[in-house]
């Protein structure tokens, strides 16, 4: 749900917070059926989750507001640690690490494991295949913030094109990337 909201949701803290407050006001004023209340609750929490995990705070006051909202959700630190750390790094002016290369390495591991067996275990194969494709989607759909992130996306695209063998340039580029140790899987 957060991915859908990210495409149409406001990108600044002020706009995202105002959007959440407006949705919360509608939810708080709801006196309709249980189904409508559930629907409004889902919309409100989706807007709040987006605000809390996807939008960086511009200052310490907004950061404190974010923590208060997180406490109100009664969730533990594991659920919010990455979002809080991203805000602290943002407020400190330090660039955030781009996770795309880590996701690419994890994807390589998953597909290597998938290819290392004789494919006689449908449940394992399905689980690994789903995990590999989910990582590929994440790499391509999440915006990169560094050159390494863009490189990870490009390596994935070239690797997939090289794997099907129809693009000679991709096969060559992939071989070079493999020789340099940038990827581990076989095309």
Helix-strand layout with pairing:
Layout: H1 2-8, H2 13-28, H3 34-54, H4 60-72, H5 77-92, H6 100-116, H7 122-141, H8 147-164, H9 168-179
Features:
187 residues; 2 domains; mainly alpha; elongated
Question: What's the gist of this structure?
Answer:
This protein is mainly α and 187 residues long.
| Beta-strand percentage range | under 5%
Low-confidence stretches: 1-6
Q: Major β-sheet, in short? A: none
Question: How many helical elements?
Answer: 9
Q: Over all CA atoms, what is the radius of gyration? A: 21 Å
Q: Name the helicity range.
A: over 70%
The counted number of beta strands is 0
**Outline, from the CA principal axes?**
elongated
The count of domains is 2
Taken in chain order, the helices and strands follow as HHHHHHHHH
- Find the structural class using helix and strand composition: mainly alpha
Mean pLDDT over the residues: 78
Distance between the termini: 33 Å
């Amino acid at each position: 749900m957060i991915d859908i909201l990210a495409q149409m949701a406001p990108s600044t803290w002020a706009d995202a917070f105002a959007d959440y407050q407006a949705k919360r006001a509608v939810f708080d004023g709801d006196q309709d059926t249980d189904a409508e209340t559930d629907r409004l609750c889902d919309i409100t929490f989706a807007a709040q989750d987006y605000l809390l995990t996807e939008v960086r705070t511009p200052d310490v006051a907004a950061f404190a507001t974010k923590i208060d909202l997180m406490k109100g959700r009664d969730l533990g630190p594991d659920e919010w640690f990455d979002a809080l750390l991203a805000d602290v790094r943002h407020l400190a002016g330090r660039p955030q690490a781009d996770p795309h290369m880590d996701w690419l390495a994890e994807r390589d591991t998953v597909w290597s494991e998938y290819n290392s067996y004789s494919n006689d275990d449908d449940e394992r194969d399905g689980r690994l295949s789903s995990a590999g494709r989910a990582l590929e989607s994440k790499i391509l759909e999440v915006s990169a913030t560094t050159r390494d992130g863009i490189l990870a996306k490009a390596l994935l695209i070239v690797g997939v094109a090289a794997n099907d063998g129809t693009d000679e340039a991709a096969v060559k580029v992939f071989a070079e990337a493999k020789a340099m140790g940038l990827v581990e899987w076989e095309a």
